[in-house]
Amino acid sequence: MPANLTPEYLAAEREYKSAHTQTEKVAALERLLATLPKHKGTEKLQADLRRRLSQARKESQKKGGAHAAPFYLIEKEGAGQVALLGPPNAGKSQLVAALTHAQPEVADYPFTTRFPTPGMMRFENVQIQLIDLPPISAEFTEPWIPHAVRNASLGVLLVDANDAAVLDQIEFIERSLERYRLPAPKLLAGNKMDLPGGMSSFAALQELYGDRYRYAGISATTGAGLDGFARAVFDALEIVRVYTKVPGKKAELNAPFILRRGQTVQDAARLVHKDFAEQLKFSRLFHIAGNREGLMVERSHLVQDQDILEFHI
Question: What is the distance between the alpha carbons of residues 50 and 185, in angstroms, rounded to a whole number?
């Protein structure tokens, strides 16, 4: 037995030995791995615990967890639902904690997240729902994750650019999503930019992958780049905000209607009231800055972000 085992580790070991169900074994093994001192003398024990934990999780799913996957689907809220995808220890939970009021469990050991945790991220005057998901890893991937990703409006791939295995991690996640017939993430976020070499490592990833992704470099620990991340997520969702106004009155700019890029004035009118879309004669288009008289546009006009529309029926 390695030296310097803590009382917390020994307590978790007793808990594991007395566990009767796979769920209890998984919880105990997670605590064993979390409380095990990390040094050269415990490397073999660390590997053994990870192997046993992976096996226990698989056995737990065999006993009925897989078919219950839809239970973990999160109802969509806000302007879009964004699934955070990534390998272990990339910092997904810390990012959600930094950007929302959610309180996912954050720890420096892998597979901390077991269930989806939603939180609402503000971007200017809209709320975007972030979903913290367990990692996608060759070691273990929760079998219900494809359902959660399929339900989302957008997938964002978050990695630790300093991790020596980052290329293998990205490749594995891309292959997994392809196998599940899921869309590839549109945004690649590099976390831990505050660490030495982080910026240059992430720049190398951008050069390697080119226009396959949009990019955002962040530090969930220091908060660097989080505003840019929120903007990048909004852009990747490919949505626009549209405001409405009554003739002779100012527009209400606090609660925009959300449409997809490529939708029209008539689509916007339908969101206000279905009768508007059917009876609409024309609209006047205003912008937040300028054109006080408004530009007359037809119902087929494509709306842009922060357009102000005045409907005439």
Answer: 28
Per-residue pLDDT of 32-61, as tens digits, reads 877 777 777 778 888 888 888 888 877 766
Contact 87, 136 (CB under 8 A): yes
Q: Per the structure block, which two tokens stand in for 113?
A: 């997240």
* Global pTM value: 0.74
pLDDT of amino acid 65? 45
Summarised one tens digit per residue, pLDDT across range 177-199 is 999 999 999 999 999 999 999 99
- Cα of first residue to Cα of last residue in the chain, in angstroms, is 81
Map out the domains of the chain with their CATH numbers: 7-67 (no CATH), 73-237 (3.40.50.300), 239-312 (3.10.20.30)
Question: For 74, which DSSP code?
Answer: P
Cβ-count burial of 247 within 10 angstroms (0-12 exposed, 13-18 middle, 19+ buried)? exposed
Task: Please name which of 117, 77, 66 lies closest in space to residue 96, comparing C-alpha atoms.
Answer: 117
